[in-house]
Structure formats: C-alpha cells, structure tokens
Amino acid sequence: MKPAPFAYFAPHNLDEALDLLAQHGYDGKVLAGGQSLIPTMNFRLAQPAALVDINRVAELAFLDEHAGGGLRIGALTRQRTLERSAAVASRAPLLHATMPYIAHVQIRNRGTLGGSLAHADPAAELPAVMVALGARFRLQSRRGTRWVAAADFYIGLFTTALQEDELIAEIEIPAMPARAGWSIQEIARRHGDYAIVGVAAVVELDPAGLCRAARLIYFSVGEGPTAAPSAAAVLLGQPADDGVIAAAARAAAQQDIDPLGDIHATPAYRRHLVEVLGRRALQEAFGRAAQA
C-alpha cells in the first residue's frame, strides 16, 4: 500500500522544526529514521497531514560524556552509532549490550534513539532499558523545555507524555553507581524479531554484599515498559543468593506481570518466560555487581 497524501517539510534547525510542530499540532509527525513511521503510513495505520523531517537538524545528533560519569545523547543519534561507541560501552554498558538485539544492522543504520523512545512500542527494548537505567528525557516545544523521567514518560499503549507540539531533544543517562550490575535478556523466535518476552535489570549491592537497589523492567508483556516492584521488594536488604533470586523472579511472574496472549505466545507461556528470564537477568546482574 501507499501512504495517504501529506505535506513534507525539512527544517534546517531546531527552531524551524518546533515552529512547524506548533503550526501543525496533532496533524504533524516527526520523521527521523522512519523505520517505524513509514511502514505504519504505508499501511495507513498513521495518516499525518504533515511530516517534519528533522534529519537536517544537526544539533539533535550528539553523544557527549558529562562530568558526572553519565551520557547526554541527542535524539537524532543513530542506533548504530550507539552500538559502536566506546563511550556507551564504558559508561552505559547495558545500552551497549542491548543494541544488537534491535532488528538488523540495516535498520539500526537509520533508526534513531529518540525515534524508538517516542514510538513507544511495548515490545521494543530501548524504552525498557531507559527506565531500568533511570534515564530522563528533555522534551522541547516552542513553548519551552521540560525534563521527564523515563519511568513517567510511558503512559499507555503507544502513548507517551509528549504533547502534540513537542519532540524528544535529548536523553540523559546517569552514571552507573558503585557496585552496580546489569543484564538484558530476551526470547525471540529469530534474531532481529521483536521479543516474545524481554527484561532489563539493574541492581546495586551495599558494602556488606546485600541488595541496596533493584530495577527489573520487562517488555513485550504489557502496554509499555513494565516494572516488577514486588520482585524488587523481595531483593532489598537480602543477599543475592539463588533462593532469593528465584523468589524474586517468581514474584515478578505471579504478582507484577499480567501478560496477554497472541499468535506468538499464550499468557501462561509469557508468564513462564517472565520467571525464567528474570532469574537469568538477576543472576547475571548480581554477578557483575559483585565484581564491580
């Protein structure tokens, strides 16, 4: 199929892009990599009246290390750039390890970080990873700028906190704390497919070797990145032994997640994967934390 008719704009700077978004409101869509938007337009699942192509807005394509040990990433930064970056590998290793799971190289060559985060596909890796990392997003419009935590950005199925005239301008990832560990786990039918179930985990140990903090964020099990607070509660203040980890993974499957079924998996199978992958992720994350 072919997309419905639309107007096309290619601003050369951020001010022009924001002016166009303010002018067109809900009828306008931002085009960055286009790896999600263009297929939905071709199937007429999306029919924007205007496309605002931000590929010429160079000020949105950057990758900076900040003094605190974290990263500042422009929304137009390509996924392949993140995959190849030594700074990402050293400062945000969970993000670095996640990139090869995302589709295929050809997609990552064009796909952008901001585009994936704004699209908010519940089966996508990057939204869950950003929540697990405690990232925050700078949202910008002609009206001004505001920062929103990744955990507060996702509010429903393909629905975010973005207003009609806003775009994601920047992603800020904080430094990994001392004695922290991470893991990314997923099950997909083929490499490059969307995950049937996936999980991103970040944990911290205190000087005594007890769990000080834990974030277990699942994807492809609900309407967006899905936290497992019951699992985290099981872990807090406890040694990271196999029994505690198994109890936390079981709590995630039984109390935190209520998955739907589809052609790929039944709810029962997804719940089983939530427990299995949760256990694997926590074992790996705590192992890394112990060596940090």
Shape: globular
- Uncertain segments are none
Question: So what's the oligomer here?
Answer: single chain
Rg (C-alpha, Å): 19 Å
- Major sheet details: 5 strands, antiparallel
Strand order of the largest sheet: 4-5-10-6-7
* Overall number of strands: 14
Mean pLDDT: 96
Helix content: 25-40%
Our estimate of the beta-strand percent is 15-25%
Helix-strand layout with pairing:
Elements: E1 7-9, H1 14-24, E2 28-31, H2 37-42, E3 50-53, E4 63-65, E5 71-74, H3 79-84, H4 86-91, H5 93-98, H6 105-110, H7 113-119, H8 125-133, E6 136-141, E7 144-149, H9 150-153, E8 154-156, E9 159-160, E10 167-173, E11 180-187, E12 197-205, E13 211-219, E14 226-227, H10 229-235, H11 242-256, H12 267-291
Parallel strand pairs: 1-3, 2-3
Antiparallel strand pairs: 4-5, 5-10, 6-7, 6-10, 8-9, 11-12, 12-13, 13-14
Q: Which tags fit this structure?
A:
single chain; 292 residues; alpha+beta; five-stranded antiparallel sheet; four-stranded antiparallel sheet; 12 helices; 14 strands; 24% strand
Structural commentary:
The chain has helices spanning 14-24, 37-42, 79-84, 86-91, 93-98, 105-110, 113-119, 125-133, 150-153, 229-235, 242-256, 267-291; strands at residues 7-9, 28-31, 50-53, 63-65, 71-74, 136-141, 144-149, 154-156, 159-160, 167-173, 180-187, 197-205, 211-219, 226-227. It is an alpha+beta fold. β8 and β9 (159-160) form a beta hairpin.
